[in-house]
Amino acid sequence: MAKKFLSNSPILSNNSTSHIRVAKPSSEFYSVFSKAEVLEIIHALETRWEIPLKYAYKGQGAKIWHEFYQKFVSPKWYRKSSVEIDLLRNNFAYIYSNIQKCEQVNVIDVGAGNSYPAKDFVAKLNQLNKINKYIALDISEGLLTVSRKNFTTWFPKIDYINQQMDIENSCIPANFSGNPKIILHLGVTMGNHHNRNQVLKNFRNSMDENDFLIFTNEIGSNSQWDGIARGGCKYHAKEIYRSIKNSIGLKSQDCQLVRKYDLATDSVVANIKFLHNYNIDFSFQGIDKSIEISKGKEITIWRHHKYEMPKLIQELEGAGLELVHYTTNKYSSHIMAICQVANN
Ligand SMILES: C[S@@+](CC[C@H](N)C(=O)[O-])C[C@H]1O[C@@H](n2cnc3c(N)ncnc32)[C@H](O)[C@@H]1O
Predict the structure, then answer these.
(1) Per-residue pLDDT for 201 more than 50?
(2) Which residue among 111, 144, 168, 276 has its CA within the 20 to 30 Å range from the CA of 119?
(3) CB 115 within 8 A of CB 90
(4) Atom 18 in ligand 1: which residue has the minimum CA distance?
């Protein structure tokens, strides 16, 4: 007699001792992602057991990031500034000395989030009448809404544009050229990308001779991680884990959150470890795919790669970029890297 398959309930496989549970992503999950994005998630699961972190900022993920930022990153009475804001402030003189000769610049904030880290920087450029437009680009429509609301409140007179885009898959749209560009990529986002080389190449291919790419990242050795989760690795990863369990339909008792050093990517990662055999069944706009995940398997949902300086310079050179200036914070844990198109 044929077995009746019930979703989200234990079903017996051929081996009667091993149960396979079926998870079906919710309708809300499918409302957040395009068909191409669902296909990329499936591909990442099949080829490297990962749900790319960039997708964790979409849908409910926008609220998760915004709340994490407000609670743990934004300046408070007991925490007057943030690493990003301090680094931008400390590098302002260098940046300004290089744009003095041009009339006005476009600030293009890629992965803008809520735009908060760029606020003081934009205010200074504005006082000096050096800013033409502020352009927020982000994979997350929800965060672009937050960015617009914030920025237009702070700077009602500065021209503001935003656009959804994925810097891992495309360059900065050409229509934002014209004035020299200051491209910001803040919040140590560089170290979160799966394909940093492609991101750097996309930045390089978006830049002209007088443009600057300014990004922050953690520096140091990933493998020397002390095993203690802090900041995004602790709080953001925990919320992403909760959200993925809900949207994909995993039972809490069937999985756990594991953080560790991953040799293959030389990164600290947060993984969902499966305590049961599972099938994740994707069914959307003609996509009909079941991913089998066996008990004990882990799926990466968060990652961060720290740079060691020689490796950073090597990756930049490989993408046709030159590190023209950098500073670190007082603990030497974070770098602000300022890059231009390489001469050769
Ligand atoms: C770690 S947050 C940093 C936000 C902000 N720059 C800050 O410093 O607070 C990463 C931001 O980059 C966006 N993001 C992540 N991957 C992206 C990608 N591939 N393309 C465009 N935006 C991306 C996220 O939606 C989020 O707004």
Answers:
(1) yes
(2) 168
(3) no
(4) 166
**Side by side, which strands form the sheet with 19-23?**
11-12, 19-23, 277-284, 287-293
Domains of the chain: residue spans and CATH: 26-57+225-304 (no CATH), 65-220+306-341 (3.40.50.150)
pLDDT tens column, 279-335? 999 999 999 999 999 999 999 999 999 999 999 999 999 999 999 999 999 999 999
CA separation for the pair 37, 243 (Å, rounded): 17
Q: What pLDDT, on a 0 to 100 scale, did the predictor assign at position 236?
A: 98
Q: Which residues line ligand 1 (CB under 6 A)?
A: 54, 57, 65, 69, 84, 111-113, 117, 138-140, 143, 165-168, 186-187, 189
Residue having the nearest C-alpha atom to atom 14 of ligand 1: 111
The pTM of the full predicted model, rounded to 2 decimals, is 0.94
pLDDT of residue 6: 41
Interval 133-146: pLDDT, tens:
999 999 999 999 99
Residue in 189, 192, 196 to alter for ligand 1 test, most ligand atoms within 8 A of Cβ? 189
List strands edge to edge, sheet with 105-110: 159-164, 131-138, 105-110, 181-185, 212-218, 334-341, 321-328
Q: Residue 253 C-alpha to ligand 1 middle, in angstroms? A: 31
The number of the ligand 1 atom at minimal distance from the alpha carbon of 58 is 25
